[in-house]
């Protein structure tokens, strides 16, 4: 039986892995949300797409980097949920992003789930920390 001291970070009860990260930026939630869906913003967190309009509800997408999936939930200025698969992965994962109001500043919350193993969790941890660093350079943090 696992105790709190021996529990594997990110391991869920169903045996998959998850990763979560939040960071607050010195811009309003509206500014952060709008930027995420510009061509420049998409290139930071999703990858390069020919046209930002390609990433829309119930449509599949594929970036130049080979990340592919489908946007399944989209609540403007709140959150979105999508499937997300890297080219080398045999499985698709679920990504949820929320933009929260934190006393007038934007908190971006990432939750990535259905990760196959610890290796995938480690990969997305590096990926999302890098994304947050780039957003920090854009917005200030």
Largest sheet strand order: 1-6-5-4-3-2
Structural Rg:
15 Å
Largest sheet: 6 strands, antiparallel
Distance between the termini: 41 Å
Tell me what the CATH architecture is.
Answer: 2-Layer Sandwich
Reading the helices and strands in chain order gives EHHEEEEEH
**CATH topology assignment:** Alpha-D-Glucose-1,6-Bisphosphate, Chain A, domain 4
CATH class: Alpha Beta
Percent of sequence in beta strands: 25-35%
Mean pLDDT: 92
Classification by helices and strands: alpha+beta
What does this structure look like?
There is one protein chain. This protein has 141 residues and is an alpha+beta fold. It has one domain: Alpha-D-Glucose-1,6-Bisphosphate, Chain A, domain 4 (2-Layer Sandwich). The chain contains 3 helices and 6 strands; from the N terminus they run βααβββββα. The chain has helices spanning 29-36, 39-45, 118-139, and strands spanning 17-25, 60-62, 68-75, 79-84, 93-102, 105-115. A 6-stranded antiparallel β-sheet has the order 1-6-5-4-3-2. The radius of gyration is 15 Å and the shape is globular. The termini are far apart. The model has no long low-confidence stretch (mean pLDDT 92).
């Amino acid at each position: 039986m696992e105790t709190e001291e021996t529990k594997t970070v990110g391991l869920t009860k169903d045996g998959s892995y998850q990763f979560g990260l939040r960071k607050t930026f010195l811009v309003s939630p509206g500014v952060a949300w709008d930027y995420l869906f510009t061509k420049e913003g998409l290139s930071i967190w999703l990858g390069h797409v020919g046209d930002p309009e390609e990433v829309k509800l119930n449509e599949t997408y594929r970036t130049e980097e080979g990340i592919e999936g489908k946007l399944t939930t989209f609540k403007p200025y709140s959150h979105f949920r999508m499937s997300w698969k890297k080219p080398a992965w045999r499985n698709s994962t679920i990504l949820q992003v929320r933009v929260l109001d934190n006393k007038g500043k934007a908190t971006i919350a990432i939750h990535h789930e259905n990760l196959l193993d610890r290796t995938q969790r480690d990969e997305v941890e590096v990926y999302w920390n890098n994304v947050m660093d780039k957003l920090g350079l854009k917005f200030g943090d």
